[in-house]
Amino acid sequence: MKLDPKHLAQLSVIVEAGSFQSAADRLGLTQPALSRNMKALEVRLGTTLFNREGRKSVPNTLGLRLARNGQAIRLAEEQAGILAGQSAKGTVGELRIGAPPIVAGRFLSSAMAGFIRENPNCVVEMRTGLVHELRTMLERGQVDVVLGPRSLAEPSDGLDYVQLIDDRVGILCRTGHLLTSRKRVMPSDLESQAWLAHSRGSLLRQQTEAAMIASGVVSMHIVCETDSIRSVLEIIADTDLITTMPRATTEPYLEDRLAFLDFDHPQFHRPLGSIRRSGAPSNPVADRFLAMLTGVE
After folding, report:
1. Mean of pLDDT values over 222-244
2. Rounded to an integer, what distance in angstroms lies between the CA atom of residue 26 and that of residue 37?
3. Which of 57, 69, 162, 190 is most buried by a 10 A CB count?
4. Which domain holds residue 129?
């Protein structure tokens, strides 16, 4: 037997209010309309819900039991309304975010920790990958937003890009390296150094090689290659090798072990932003996180 949940909720209000008129006032109904609804419920049940005591209708045992069910329905509706409101504000829901390893490190994880503390009702899933892997995740709908370099998103690919910061590339070495004492680092200085290179085919490797050629560096003496950001930072800190890393997202790792050289080139420009699928449904949780990340609430 299927009962109208609205009628059960109204029954619970009648029991709480103590009369049809008081309940009708609370519900914004007329007393006759509320009476018709209760009559329809009794017809559906095939029995009465109220006993007549003079001019007063008093709920019987079945009426009281069903009123408890109606109260649960009202509570569920109230909770659903609160949840919907929180969802619209981005304080509850799911955030699925992807990022390259260096971005997903301390730069993003510290922001993520703050977001989780402020929004305990949100579920967060963070995935890492190389640029082509992140693009695939977006296309397949496995993540809602990617924080990555501008080169990951092309309008022709159906991706929208909004810049967050200029995560310029810099030349990284250990603190105390010979080149850190130079007032001006020259291309010849870079040619004379042993390099740690990022994996072949990576955007950072391509950008580094293009910047070095444009700077006048004829050749790079590469003695180590890795696709592990953690290994890059540890090796550079413990040797005299030099490498390139994005400045803003590497900054949290510098401490007193690592330093960027005073060397720059226009080719080191590396905008970092949020990337989403064009026309994807709005995600208030993602909007809230990105607003927090940029300091705009």
Report:
1. 95
2. 15
3. 190
4. 91-165+274-294
